[in-house]
Amino acid sequence: MHYSTANLRIHKFSSLQPGPRLIVTGAVHGSETSGTRGIEKVLAELDSGELTILRGSLTLLPVANPLAYSKGERNGDRNLNRNLQPCEQPLDNEDRIANVLCPLLAQHDVLVDLHSFRAQGEPFAMIGPANNADDLEPVRHAELEQALALRLGPRRIVEGWLSTYAVGVQQRLARTKPTERSELLSTHPSYGVGTTEYMRKTGGYAITLECGQHADPDAPGVAYRAIRNTLAHLGLVDETPPPARTDIEFLRLAEVIDRHHPDDQFTRSWSSYDRVAQGDVIGLRHDGSEVRAPREGYIVFPDANAKAGNEWFYFAHPSTRTIT
Fold it and tell me: 124-126 and 110-117: which strand pairing?
């Protein structure tokens, strides 16, 4: 299927009966195509009549960042899934997309945003915090978000993204010269806000589903099954709702560690959710100093090719929050 860089291809199916308004997005990062392939399979079933939306509405956006997708790279001009907000004076490709994507998200109740990751590892879902009215990430429907996460398919669920990233931004600001801050988007206070965070701020609920490693042949199937499970769970189709998984591993992101210098190196080829013990050496800075695990936990999103000043890896540990 062709995706023009001049527009967003948006597919909407509106039932004549009331129900939830669901939007599913793929390729927010252009190199992450498993969601696109999963969405395309669902589209083919809808077009053939094999699948019918009977209640509510379904919006499918197979490629949210066509420029990045055409390049086969994570970004077009910059990372669309950071500092996502409408912009009165758009300066780049992602600003222009945001001016279409943000109002579109606000028209819906539920978002499933499909992604993949660089290092090896199993699929997992990322959810927001418990219900709260804080300025950072207000949440109204945590119980609905949790219920959906338990039915998407993957057993691993992760929380804590935005609060962890907010601390990382403050650390980045502290080590960045004031004269350089205006040049770094990653020091913006809202830098951690992406599609799901924006959706929650508009009053909806949202899940990021990481479908597997970029090139994993099973990842598109993970995306496809998640969409079908969501349609059944929300009652948009007449299918038996999937049961909630009971073997969940629920983790919390606790810290983001940036790469400070191009010569910072990992001590080994890490995969997402590799376990580490307290004190294990994860990487070496360019000056020879060691980066050690602060406690027993897990490596998440290790990026050996991260640019200096950007996130190198995350550290996670078991969540103390109950998920039902």
Answer: unpaired
pTM, two decimals, is 0.92
Structure tokens belonging to residue 313: 């890896």
The DSSP output letter for 266 is E
How many CB atoms are located within 10 Å of the residue 305 CB? 8
Q: Give the tens place of pLDDT for each residue, 57-96.
A: 999 999 999 999 999 999 999 999 998 999 999 999 999 9
Q: Which amino acid is at 33?
A: T
Name the token pair of 13.
């199916």
Domains of the chain: 11-247 (3.40.630.10), 259-318 (2.40.50)
Q: What is the CA radius of gyration of the chain?
A: 19
Tell me: pLDDT of 173 over 90: no
Shortest CA distance to 36 belongs to which of 205, 226, 224?
Answer: 224
Structure confidence by residue, pLDDT tens digits, 248-298: 999 999 999 999 999 999 999 999 899 999 999 999 999 999 999 999 999
Two tokens at 61? 């956006």
Do 20 and 83 form a contact (C-beta atoms < 8 A)?
A: no
Give the residue from 205, 198, 216 showing the smallest Cα distance to 35. 216
Count of beta carbons in the 10 Å neighbourhood of residue 1: 11
Band (pLDDT 50/70/90 cuts) for residue 225 is very high
Q: CA torsion 304→158→34→203, rounded to 10°?
A: -120
DSSP 139: B
DSSP 8-state secondary structure symbol assigned to residue 182: T
Q: Distance (Å, rounded) from C-alpha 22 to C-alpha 206?
A: 10
302: number of Cβ within 10 Å:
26
For residue 211, pLDDT beyond 80? yes
